[in-house]
Every structure is written in C-alpha cells, then in structure tokens.
Design goal:
By secondary structure, the chain is of the alpha+beta class. About 45% of the residues lie in helices and about 15% in strands. β5 and β6 form a beta hairpin. InterPro entries: ACT-like_dom_sf (IPR045865), ACT_dom (IPR002912), Beta-grasp_dom_sf (IPR012675), HD/PDEase_dom (IPR003607), HD_domain (IPR006674), NT_sf (IPR043519), RelA/Spo_fam (IPR004811), RelA/SpoT_AH_RIS (IPR045600).
Length: about 750
C-alpha cells in the first residue's frame, strides 16, 4: 500500500506548489475513517481510495481532486458526514465528495427505467464539476483491475456496465488510454476465450515482427531528421478489444487484419505535422481512403491528429498518427489535460475560462434532461451519443454538423432543426439528388429539401441513428396518430349520439370535457378513438340526464370502443388468442386483447401480419386500419412498402414480453429439402426437438430432386426461431431455410 509521503511525491512531480499539509490530512482522515474495513480481496479498504488517488496523479490533477478521491467513500461507508468534511477540508472538496456519494450505488444494468434514472443522476452530478466524473472513472478503473475478487455472479454485471457506460464516457472525455484499459478488462471478463485467443496471436506476432517495429521507428526517425524535423516516434500494437471489434465490424479473421501496428509521430509544431506527413507519403505508398485530418477538424472530444495508413517495410500496413506534444497530452489525458482547475503555476482552484469541447458535449447532453424525454428515450439517446464515432458534414452555407457514424440525411436534417427534419422530403448530397437513407461520409455537403405538407413516417425511427432524430420522429408520429385517433373518435361519437337520439355538437363536447378529465374536445375524441373513453360516458358528460338502454333492449353491442357492429342477439364475435396469453377478468377467453405490445391501448383489436407474423426480438411497427384495428408487422416486411404514403397510420410499438413468458408467436419459414423418404419426418423432428409447434404445413414441388415446405410455426421469440432454423440447416436432407416476412 502506498505510503503518505509517496502520494505527496507523486503529486509534487507535476505540481511543485502542492498543498502537502492538505494531502497529509486527507490521507490520515480517510485511513482512520475506514479503520478496519476490508475489501473482498482481504486488503485494507483504504487501499482502494488510495489507488484511485494514484490513478488521478497520473492524470496530473489538482489537489482538490486528489483529496476527493481519498475521501470519496467516507460519507457512504463510514460515519463521516458532509458537514464534517466541509469543516476540515472546505466547501469545494465536500461538494465533490457528496457528488460522488450520490452516484456511488449506480446499477446501470438493471431494468431500463431504473437504469435511465441512475444515468441521469450520474450526468447531473458531473454537470457542475467534471472532476466528479474523473474520480468516478478512476474508481471504476481500480474496481475493474481488482474484479477477480468480486463474487462470480457480479463480475459479468460490473464488466457489462463498464463496457456500456464508463468506457464510452472515458472516450467522450478524450481519455483514450483509460478507455482502452476499461474495454480490455471488460472484454477479458465477458469473453475470456476470445480475449485469450487474440492475446496469444498478438504475442506470437510480436515475437515474429519485433524487428519490423524497430526498423520502422528507426527509418522514420532518420528520414525526418534528414529533412530537419525533430520527432519522437513510438510504435504500439492494438489492444485485444480493439482487434476483436474490428474483426466483428468487418466480419474477417485475425489473419486478414493488416494494420495491427500503429506509430505515433510527435513533432514540435502544427507546421511540422504536415511536413512530416509529406515525408511519410514520399517514403511509403499511401493506402487510399485512409487519410484523416483531425487537426483542421478536431473530434468533439478535442482529439487532434493526422491519421494515415501506408504500406511500410516488408509490405506491412502501418497506421501513422502525427501530432504535437500538446495534442499528445490531450490524446492521452483528454479533458484532464486542459487543466480546468489549475493556473499556470499548477496551483489548484483557479479555473480557466476555456471549456473543452468534450465538456461542452456533456453539458449539451444534460440539456436533454429538460426536453421531457421518457427515461427509456433519454437512456437510448445518451447511449447512442456515447457509442458512435463522428462524421463531419456541411450545410450549403458552410455550417459544420457533427454526426455519429452511419448517420443519414434524416439525422442531418434534425441536427439542423427539428422543423427541418419533420418537413424533409428529399436531399442533395454534394449537389446530387440522393435517398434520405444514404449513409453520410466525412466532408459531404448536404442540402435538405422540405415540404410543409410532409410529416415524418414512423419507419424513420428505425433508420435514424441519433437519439434526437429518433425522439423527434416519435413525437411527430404520436401527433399524427393522435390526429388519426381524434378523427376516428369524432366519427364514433357522431354515430353514438345519433343512435342515442341526441344532437352531436363539438361545442357541447368541449363544455363537457371537465367531467371527462380532459382539457379540450380534441383530447376527448382522441381518447374515444383509442378506446379510453366509452361513448356512453361521453354522451352522459354532454347530456347528464341521458340513460343508456338496458342490455335486454339492445340488439347490438359495442366492440372495443371503435364503432358499432350490427350483431343479432345470440351471435358471438370471436378472435383467436395466442397460446399462453390471458384474457382480462370477465371477458371471453377467445378475445384478442393480450398480445404483449407496448404503445397500443388494449381496447383496439390487434392481429399479426398475415404470411409470416412477428415474434419478440423482431423490430416491429403497428399499422392502424380505421374500423378494423391494428396489424403488427416486423420492420423487414416488404408489405410495409404499401403504407409508405400513409405515415399517419404507423404506430410506435414495442414488445412487452417477460423473458420467462411461455406465450408463443407466429412465424413462417420455407424449407427446401431433398426429395427423399423421411425428409418430412426429419424436418418435423428438428422443429419438435427444439420446442417449436407446427401450426400449418404446405408442400410444393420445386424439382425432381427437391421440394419446398411452407411451414407456419409458433415460437417463443426470435432467438428460439433462429435456433430452430440453425438446427434445420444442419440436417443432411435440408438444402436451404428461409424466413418469410409477408
């Protein structure tokens, strides 16, 4: 365990004016406060905050941050109080420690709403003082380094949480070294076999190519010196998680990777960066399409550098990063390198006027808290912002728009303004007409074509990449759907009033809204259309003395609040219900009202799309057909093309299925099998062995050697369906298996 004087020496190396007495008091106070507490490893608990402080000294942070790191668990885990810390160490440090205490018990892989609320707490805590985040990241890094002492059942949860939230946050703050270590430690826990396999291959490659790295370093440094450029050249190999990510993204094997080595060329000035680039491109052939200039266009986390890939000695592909010493500091330490809380002499507490782009992004994210997003939407928006790298595009007037990778003109339009996105009907990319679903590239000039008659289709939500665009599409879709429901409800009301023998008037309905707990007639009609208000209640709100006819006097009945169906007494109206679904109390067990879909009121009839259905795990949309109900389609269904011109009919829906639910859902597959005795038995056996239920089967000949089977099956979810299809493909008699989506 680090001694008191050792901690002071670590700080003094970069801050000669450090307040040694303050550090000593904090060291002794924290050690006494934690007393005999032990970590899971058996080490004294105080060793943890001490190691967190040591990590922050590597980032060259101010005294207040180091002290906050030493004290960050005292309020939560000891008898210490904020008032006592404020009395002993001052308001600034007490506020930092309290901010860390509020976010100590984050549980970011629990249910989504709770996860979102905890993420809100984290972002709010660091909004006023970024040092809270720096301590939290160092805290998580040390916990990951000691993860082996955590109970086995918690390790995966902590590792996944780190990979989902903390590593991307470190990246957004520009702290690349910390991000890479967090990713590797998480990867080692979550995929130990993959990690070990890649680590072994990298080690073998290192032994075989060690001379190549030294050769490139020597050649490059000598060449730059001959041209009068003083430079430091450092070679490094990519980390296992980075390698695995590239293999996953490009669907290639380890042997196909060509740029496992990277070199940093550190020079004295920006001018020397571009001169060094010319030297490198003169000496070795450039790989086309692999040059990026992050000096003229920095990343949102303030990262600046020139990137290029060349074909170096022995035909090895080599990635070069060229930057100045200041740029190197920011690349390594990110937001911590800006010294927000240090003056020129290194003394703490003198906050500079400069605010980094990374912290500006954080503040912008906090602003989304006031936009009325639901917890789930906020979480989705923030995660999307965390995970995506950037592309930079321009408006025709030259305004720079930063977007995530794989962003489309839809995202671009909403980044310019929500109204531009809502009215977008087309776009031009670099002067040429292009689809709105095109993937944007760095440097594209994008012009959005708008029309006031346009409303965004609900399907845009599945195309958009940014959280802002998705949230805006949802809002616009809800508005369009509400208008659709209101129109439907108005017609229902007119017919209901006519059948009751009462005069229908929108003014009269508006006067009756207080009795229905609504504020406007439009709200009432939308509620009637959704089935939230019964027409009988609406009529009574307008005509309080009216009484509905007795059930014995009625020759018809109202179904689901969306219209009157003429049915003779004694006739039954039946809907098929999926196996495992339960009807509401007092209702016919065959009525369809239990499909587990969120975003749909239970009063409207719901059915699955014909010829293929949908299963949990599919991304789905609902199509509203007035007078008929809602049909659920998987997003990949070709049938949805016929509704592209009717965006008001698209509904924002999601599955609401418990993982342990035993309900089954319809799917259709086509199996091409050899025309041999027993082939049908093998196909049916494979489905039965995996717990699938065959609901329908149609045989059709394809050739003398093969025939097709069109099979309707019932499965639990998409994973279950994929397992069945994989098992079928493994059967010797099966040549091909395809899923049908309408």
């Amino acid at each position: 365990m680090m001694r008191q004087y050792e901690l002071v020496e670590r700080v003094r190396r970069y801050n000669p004016n450090t307040d040694e007495a303050l550090l000593d008091r904090a060291y002794v106070y924290a050690m006494r406060a934690h007393g005999s507490q032990l970590r899971a490893s058996g080490d004294p608990y105080f060793s943890h905050p001490l190691e967190v402080a040591a990590i922050l000294t590597d980032l060259k942070l101010d005294d207040a941050t180091i002290v906050a790191a030493l004290l960050h668990d005292t309020i939560e885990d000891t008898s210490a109080t904020k008032s006592e810390i404020e009395r002993l160490f001052g308001m600034q440090i007490a506020t930092l420690v309290e901010g860390l205490t509020k976010i100590k018990k984050l549980d970011l892989v629990s249910k989504q709403a709770k996860q979102a609320e905890n993420l809100r707490k984290l972002l709010l805590a660091i909004a006023d003082d970024v040092r809270v985040l720096l301590v939290k990241l160092a805290d998580r890094l040390h916990n990951m380094r000691t993860l082996k002492w955590v109970p086995p059942e918690k390790r995966d949860r902590v590792a996944q949480e780190t990979l989902d939230i903390y590593a991307p946050l470190a990246a957004r703050m520009g702290m690349q070294d910390m991000r890479e270590e967090l990713e590797d430690l998480s990867f080692r826990q979550l995929s130990p076999e993959a990690y070990e396999s890649i680590a072994v291959r990298v080690s073998e490659l290192r032994q075989g190519n060690g001379a190549v790295v030294q050769e490139i370093e020597r050649e490059l440094k000598d060449e730059l010196e001959r041209r009068g450029i003083a430079a430091e050249v450092k070679g490094r190999e990519k980390r296992p998680y980075s390698i695995w990510g590239k293999m996953e993204r490009k669907a290639i094997g380890f042997e196909q990777l060509s740029d496992l080595y990277g070199f940093r060329v550190i020079v004295g000035s920006v001018e020397d960066c571009y001169r060094a680039l010319g030297v490198i491109h003169t000496k070795w052939a450039i790989v086309p399409g692999r040059f990026k200039d992050y000096i003229s266009t920095p990343k949102p986390n303030d990262y600046r550098s020139l990137h290029t890939t060349v074909v170096g000695p022995r035909r090895q592909r080599v990635e070069m990063q060229i930057r100045t010493r200041d740029m190197e500091e920011i690349a390594e330490y990110g937001i911590a390198a800006h010294a927000l809380y240090k003056d020129a002499s290194g003394a703490p507490g003198a906050m500079l006027s400069y605010e980094s782009r990374a912290y500006a992004w954080l503040r912008k994210t906090i602003e989304n808290l006031s936009q009325g997003l639901s917890p789930e939407e906020f979480l989705e928006h923030t995660k999307l912002e965390l995970f995506h790298d950037q592309v930079f595009c321009f408006t025709p007037k030259g305004r720079l728009i930063a977007l995530p990778r794989k962003a489309t003109p839809i995202d671009f339009a909403y980044a310019v303004h929500t109204d531009v996105g809502n009215t977008a009907v087309g776009c031009k990319i670099n002067g040429s007409i292009a689809p709105l679903v095109s993937e944007l590239k760095n440097g594209d000039e994008v012009e959005i074509i708008t029309s006031k008659a346009q409303t965004p289709p609900g399907a845009w939500e599945t195309i958009a990449v940014t959280g802002k665009a998705r949230a805006a599409v949802r809002r616009a879709t809800r508005t369009a759907v509400r208008a659709q429901y209101a129109g439907l409800g108005r017609k229902i009301a007119e017919r209901a009033f006519a059948k009751a023998g009462k005069v229908f008037s929108e003014d009269a309905v508006a006067k009756g809204t207080p009795r229905l707990a609504r504020t406007a007639a439009e709200d009432v009609f939308a509620a009637v259309g959704r089935g939230e208000i019964k027409t009988e209640d609406l009529i009574r709100a307008v005509y309080p003395d009216w009484q509905p006819p007795r059930a014995d006097d009625r020759t018809d009945r109202q179904i689901n609040g969306e219209g009157w169906f003429e049915l003779k007494r004694g006739h039954n109206l039946k809907f098929k219900i999926p196996e495992g679904a339960k009807p509401r109390d007092g209702e016919d067990a065959e009525r369809l009202d239990a499909i587990p879909i969120r975003g749909i009121n239970g009063e409207l009839p719901v059915r699955f799309a014909p010829e293929g259905g949908a299963v949990p795990g599919d991304r789905i949309v609902g199509i509203l057909t007035p007078g008929e109900g809602i049909t659920i389609y998987p997003i990949q269904s070709p049938s949805l093309q016929s509704f592209e011109d009717a965006p008001e009919r698209w509904l924002d829906v999601r599955w609401d299925v418990d993982e342990l639910s035993e309900g089954r859902f319809p799917a259709r597959i086509i199996v091409t099998a050899r025309n041999a005795p027993g082939s049908l038995a093998q196909v049916a056996g494979a489905i039965g062995d995996r717990g699938g239920n065959i609901d329908g089967l149609q045989m059709r000949s394809r050739s003398a050697d093969f025939h097709e089977m069109v099979i309707d099956i019932e499965v639990f979810d998409l994973r279950h369906l994929n397992t069945i299809m994989a098992d079928l493909k493994a059967r010797e008699v099966v040549a091909q298996v395809e899923r049908v989506n309408g």
